[in-house]
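Lay summary. Proteins are chains of building blocks that fold into shapes, and those shapes determine what they do. In this project we predict the shape from the chain. Here is one chain we studied, written as its sequence of building blocks.
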Amino acid sequence: MALNITLAGTIYNSSDIAIDANLQFFTYNKNNGLNKWSDLFVTENTQYNKNLGDPDISGQDNTLGVTDSLNEFVVIAVWINGSRDDISNIPGEFAYIIKELEGDELYIQDIKLGIPGAITCSNWTITDSVIVGESIIAQSSNTNETTYEAFSTTHFLYREYKNQIFSETIFPFMGPGLVEYDFGNGYDQSNVFISITGGDLEVNIQVQDYFGNSNICTKTVKIYYDIQLCFNSSPSNLHAGENLVITSCISGSTDKITSISYNISGTNLNGTNVQKVIDSFGLVPVTQYVTFFNGYENISRELSRNIVMENIPPIVDLEVISSPEDNNVPQTFEFAHNGTDIDGYIEYVEWEVWRNNPDSFGHENWSLYYTTGKLNSLDNWFYNFDNIIGDLKVASIVYDNLNASARDEYHINIECIGGGSASFTFFSNFDWSKKVKIINFNIKKVEKDFSLDIIKDTFKQNIVRIDWTNKPKKLLWKKRTKKMTFRYSLLDV
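And here is the predicted shape, written in a compact code that computers can read:
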């Protein structure tokens, strides 16, 4: 289908006088990619009349029809004197319009030329305030571009035409020809500056257009001195009773600092680096106070942080306090944990009895026989061993106020050691079903000898009984190995 669309109209100057002018058409067709500038035309008797299908405009290969200003459009550029695309030969008056086609074969569109105004410098931004060492950035959006309405259509005094998908330079001499900045060190085109001194800084912008117009505007930037508060503490594993050393690591404009002080756990200390002996365990609150001059006024700041002290675990020293006081096989014993904590206090104590059940190869196999759980009472602990035989351990676990713990053990052994050939039932509070020949109860040391009597009960069973007639007043336990040795034997009757 032949392209037969005619565009016609009259050209007027900025004073609304009909004049002859230069014209060029730019056709854009996204669908077939036929985007081109036409030849240069001059109006006749102030009028133009052109068919888009002419080969010197768009050509018959173009399928322009109904345009939508996004995928298909026609630009009509008009000017007098000079050149449309040569910035060294700028025209006197000019404009362009965008013509949308709506399916008609003839479009009458008059065009009025315009003159751009002088470029301004008021449309620019700059960082209002910065810290010494930060970048000051200026951005110019100054332009002499403008639009106006004439003959029911928008006229553009613009550098280019653009939409969401396309742009084309129409009048390259529009907009700022040169933008320069002066940050106090002379004009150049760099728009970034870093100041090393504080205070007010006047920044100038100079904007020039291609028509010889220029403007200078000024803005003031506030530049502040600043510091970053910081302090270090040592040692890293602080314990109660040790010296806490605080050292400053402030950065920034440190030469503007007028005072530094600290508060450590309620104690005020002046100086860049300070120290204090910490007597008790816990969090140590430290606050750094700094005053400095920011270029305009004195500023006070503070930085607080808790120094976490390292907890020293408690100490436990399990001790057997007393021996049984009856005349039977030793039963109830008294134990003391002797727990201490140098940077806190003992809050709980736990007692355990462990029993060894060796496997078939004789390897140790310890299991928990009894536990008290955590006890608030820190008093001595009493336990009766009459119902246990075998290899045993008593353990004391103490917990400080921060739940750190320490453990100590005492080893007790009740076992067979050989002897007579008869089988006997150990007749006391032990496991009555156990058949034993000899039973050994280990205690480290006794002061005097004692004897064993084998007696008969009414069931003709052999019963062991220890004669404590000459028992010592006190059994002495050797705490070095935490193991008691006291032995006795069952003999045949």
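What the prediction tells us: Residues 70 and 236 are 68 Å apart (CA to CA).
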